[in-house]
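Q: My labmate handed me this sequence with no annotations at all. I'd like to see what the chain might look like in three dimensions before we decide whether it's worth expressing. Could you predict it?
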Amino acid sequence: VIKTHTPLAGIPLSDDVRYIVVGRHPLDVAVSMYHHVGNLDQVRSAQLRDRPPTEADRGTLDEWVDAWTCDTRPPQEALDTLAGNVHHITDALQRREGGNVLLVHFDELVKGREVTTRRIAAWLGIEANEARWADVVAATSFESMSADPARTVPDHLGILKDPAAFFRSGSVGDGLRSLAPETVGRYDRRLASIASP
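A: Here is what I predict for the chain of 197 residues:
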């Protein structure tokens, strides 16, 4: 099992491999990313990339999400943007035809873990061990994953200020709850211009 944030277009594809792509509401992605960027040790990140360190001011959440939404660079140059997020999910949707790509919505993983884990297991051809299935479902909870960040978020390169802060909330609808209506309106207009219905 290999876990990556790289879209399918950026990794080798094989008919012998199964790919599970998790999509999330883009505004939830943006809010999560805002907090994640704030938890990155920018000096260490610059060292790893052999670049001079910068500690840019992210601004307010709404300012950051506006910049993320309105960034017009091609997705291949800037994946951590709305356009990059749309590219990632659109590509996965198109590749489902081959039968070895499963698209799962983050909401399903939060609100319907029992059903979703069974669906994933069936798609992978894994027979559920009923005696252990409750443990499997419990292990997929936000609470379980955030309880032991040293295990679930190994930070071998020391890039996180606080590994436990990686698990901020894992909630659904954070974007719509956290952002000003004007920010959401700009997001809606931009999304409609770059994504198919």
